[in-house]
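agent> Task received from the user: take the single chain below, predict its 3D structure, and emit structure tokens. No templates, no multimer pairing.
agent> Plan: (1) validate residues, (2) run structure prediction, (3) serialize to tokens, (4) report one or two observations.
agent> Step 1 OK, no nonstandard residues flagged.
tool_call: predict_structure(input=
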Amino acid sequence: MTEVPQSWFGAGLNADAEPTQDTENFQDSQHTLDSLDGSAAESQFFFQHARRLGNAGGDAFTRLYRAFLAARAALGLALVATQLTAGILGSALPMGTSILSLLYAAQAITWWLLPRLQRGATAKTLARVSSPQWWASIGVDLALFGLLHALDRSGGVNYGALFVMPVLMAGVLTPRLLGLATAATAALIMLGVAGWAVLDGADVALRLTQAGLVGSGFFVISLLASEMASRLAREERAARGSMEFARQQAQLNRLVIDEMQEGVLVVDRRGHVRAANPAARDLLADGPASVRTAPFQMRGVAAWQPLVRAVEQAFTSAAWPEAGRDVALAFDNGAERSLRLRMRFTRRRESEASEDLCVLFVEDNRKVLARSQQEKLAAMGRVSAGIAHEIRNPLAAIDQANALLAEDLAEPRAQQLTRMVASNVARLKRIIDDVLEVAPGAVPAPVPLDASLLVSETCLEWARTNQLAPGPNDRLSCALPTHALVISFDPEHLRRVLVNLLDNALRHAEAGPASVQVELKAEVLANSQPWARLTVFSAGAAIPPEVERHLFEPFFSTRSRGSGLGLYICRELCERYGAQIDYRRRQDPARPGNEFSIRLRLLEAAAVGATVSPSLF
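)
tool_result: status=success, residues=617
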């Protein structure tokens, strides 16, 4: 099917036409902006200008089409007024011209005043000569103006100038070829009427020359109108692109501001809040109920008076510090809140001019202090890692010198001192290893490994080190599957986690067989995600609540010689590989105790490699 040429404005710009890409983008963006839930009304002030641009973009084709219809109606009234004026002044005009003028005026005014008659007029329909919309406007003009010009062959009234209207309309609203065809039709009508006048005895040279010049002018008008229409279409497309970008930017700004942890307020010099994001409204609230959405007035609320005074001070002077200033709010229920307040103005100050709006960035000082503490801890961690590296070499020298010295000493007292030195050196080495384990640096890449086999080997090695025989009749009891459970973890890090948990369990377990139990099994949660659960249980007294709250915190230990990094390292290593570690008290009537469990993500459920013999446990 051959595609019909269209005007410079393209198809579908009218409300009844097929939507173009720009129109679809506008509708989708507008729907996205309007469908944002939660705090959509809280930040309207930030984006109302972009919305106003988008909603006022309009349709260039529709506007121009209605403008031409209004011009046709005015032209029809002008024709009727001309006929009446000529009759009043005593000029004898043909009855046919008066009737045609009345008919044209009635048709033009009716088409202009009744929007339903314009419903089918689009750039696509006007691009076809066969369409009713083309004949109802351009075609009617050519026919009626041609008849008026033919009825007045004597040249008493210059009806030929009326052809400028259809030629101009076709040049703007139709393709260039159709516009030139309209100009050619008007020129042929002019030449035909001139030839008819020559047959009636008119001057040949005068009438044909006038018709030729007017016809040439029609072509010039059509080309100029077509060029102006193309330029207008390009500018409209550029404007639509700019408005689309503004809408997308407004949407991004809204999402960013609404999700900010820092409160954002837009306030004028009268204390009127134009916009406030959810974080700011939460900071201004004195209880669980949040402050209503903007706009609202800060004056009149006693708790907000420090903010009002701060805004007034910022507007009257430029002394507000760049880093902000602390403001204390005291609420009616006795609660107090310290806020860090920073201000930024919407535009630069100019001589004596003052700002109308300013942006307030509000943050709870507790978060500021917590962030500062985190930065200090991170800095201390980097320093500690550097110190640990520096201590390693002299500590190794001390250990070696102490070993050489112990070989030459025979006195019991001296040997006791060397053993004490060796014990403390080993303790320092463990602390250095713990610090370096959690220090910032390159994280080893996880590899697929058989958790069943690795846990089995680690438990056997740990039992030999602690002189324990794994089995139901000794302190260590292990329950492992006979098939492989493949997980993604670093082998050395998983061994480190398991050994830390076993050391901690043995230290706090009561005497008796199977007081320390290790269990590994596969489990499937409600979301059908396969997991492997590694559990280390120790039978004994419950952990006190004041200790349980700090179990996984660094440098917290109940032992005088403990570093307090064991469980903290376990948690950090598990989080690196997507695993989860937690603690619970097992309320078993037969044997209550403390249980640490690790959830490891399974890669596959099929058995691979060697199997683990249950007879070892």
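agent> Step 4: summary for the user.
Residues 458 and 495 are 6 Å apart (CA to CA).
agent> Done.
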